[in-house]
Amino acid sequence: MPFFKKPLAGPGYVILNIIRIMNIIAFTAVIIASFSMLVKTFIVSKFFFFDAVSHVVTAFLSMFLLLTETPLFRSYFARNWPLLSPTHGFLTLGILMIILGVSVLGNLNKEATSQASLGTSYWRIVIASGIIIIIMGTANIFASYIFRQKKLGVTARQVRAYGAVAAQKLPLPVTAMSPTSGSVRLDSKHRPFGLLARSDTVPASAGAGGMRTNDPRRNISAPMNNVQPDQFVRFEGEPIGKPDLAHHPAMMGERF
Fold this sequence. Notes:
Layout: H1 9-44, H2 49-68, H3 74-80, H4 91-106, H5 115-118, H6 120-146, H7 156-162, H8 166-169, E1 174-177, E2 183-186, E3 201-203
Antiparallel strand pairs: 1-2, 2-3
Helix pairs in contact: 1-2, 1-4, 1-6, 1-7, 4-6
């Protein structure tokens, strides 16, 4: 952010990984609280189907978000859930965490999940999990803006993964293709330390059917068979003779 004069990628690597551990703890607490309310609702009061479904959905959503904080299934999240992938920050994650916390704390207003029905121990688990995940959701939203490097296109998730060298780990994204020269233009804001400063383009070769592709190999034509015999006559001149050895320094004697 502009009011920080020094880059925070180095300390951000440590801080964001601490937040990651706290996120995993918060999601685990919500999972335990959801299943506790599910069991207690079934034991203490009549079994309400939709109440049970809401607790199950909350628990499985917490499990799903917990997986996004681990190294598992990275390609799956990058392909199908890009807002939860390294190319985006923690804004979506933080908002979902706050929604989960509000949903968990909202269950305490029901008679089946009140302190008298759940008991003091289970009631404390529920209220603590709701408060913790709301706090961590807010922390993730602030961290997403504080530790990103907008000019370099580095997100807070990438800072958490790579630290101070996050900008060097990014691939150079393709932003446009020139229709005349057939070159692929790279986004200059993602180039760390002024890489490719002299040329922003990468040539693209012509593929099958005249379509241009990103294949770095160029199509080289076959040798020309229709060369005219007198084509290079103008380059012919007098033959180059043997130079005069009298002017060679070795033959000058003592004149040097």
